[in-house]
Amino acid sequence: MSKLKIAVLASGRGSNFKAIAEAVKKGEVDAEISILITDKQDAGAIQIAKSYNILVQFIDFTKYSNKEDGDLEIKKVLDSKGVGLVVLAGYMRILRSRALLDAYKFKIINIHPSLLPAFKGSTHAQNDAFDYGCKVSGLTIHFVTADVDGGQIIYQEAVDISDCKTGSEAAVKILKKEHEAYKKIIDSFSKGKYEIKGNRAEFVRN
Ligand code: GRF
To answer: What are the sequence ranges of the domains in the chain?
Structure first.
């Protein structure tokens, strides 16, 4: 059987992307990364892609007055590569196109550095949790829908941040766990898929 084809979408430094690429290289994740798609020409993730010989596609959203057109460009790339799983790894743009979200329903996942629904939609959720005085925060891997950070939860892990002195320290502690968790969940997609049962998705092994 052919391997699951993954597309990673990233806008930033790409440490999660690197953890996934390394796991694929080591055979810990039984899939192939077909492409890195980025909306930022200076994303650190681009250099990581080059070091793993992964194809990069830059989508220039400044070209589009209607940002959904940029999403449709992403959809074209995904379709052309036969992508079976879209992994958001620090992709800082909201996916708005209905056509993209519908075509890849239960095939787009994101990692968020909090225990959702706490600090939903925040781009600095680890700091928010720290400032709030949370003793435990964590990470959530979830499906991507039109509701930002609101799609069905696939996996959560709690992280004790009670010993952290700053929000940045908490972020580092959570990030280490993100790297471990994301590759395991991605590998589970390579061994099965989610099917809609009622109004929920359920994991079914291949
Ligand atoms: C991570 O904290 C992830 O949870 C969030 O964005 C950050 C991306 O970091 N969605 P990196 O670019 O993978 O290092």
So the answer is: 4-203
